[in-house]
Amino acid sequence: MVPAILVALVLALFGTVLIVWTPDVPGHGWIRATYVLFVVVALKLPLLAILWWLIARNPEWPGKRPTWLPAEQAEILAYLEKESHRAAQLPDAVERLEYLSQEAWHVADRLDGEAKVDALTVALRIDLVRERARRERSEH
Q1: What 3 state SS string does 24-55 have?
Q2: pTM above 0.70?
Q3: Does residue 3 surpass a pLDDT of 90?
């Protein structure tokens, strides 16, 4: 993906340079018009196509609640729980667990039904791990 974007950017920049040279193109007006159309369409179209693809593949609008598929919900919750167990072993466990707790509660706020129950369970488990980490920190 990155090489395709880089090639499209190079073509677009090259097209911009070629547009600047339009007055120096010899010949009739239709030759210049063809030249400009080629430069604008052929050299900038790949970048426009990539940008349109990036916009079209994320149909959610800013400010609108995200809609997660059940598989995505389960993946998010599993990740949060796995990260909480991993973070509990680190020196900055309390801070990391605080962040993970906020994320888990955020996810729980966004879900409904049985998925909400699962999210609340994960959030409470993370809170328990966080409290355990706080106690261990204060004992040392």
Answers
A1: HCCCCHHHHHHHHHHHHHHHHHHHHHHHHHHH
A2: no
A3: no
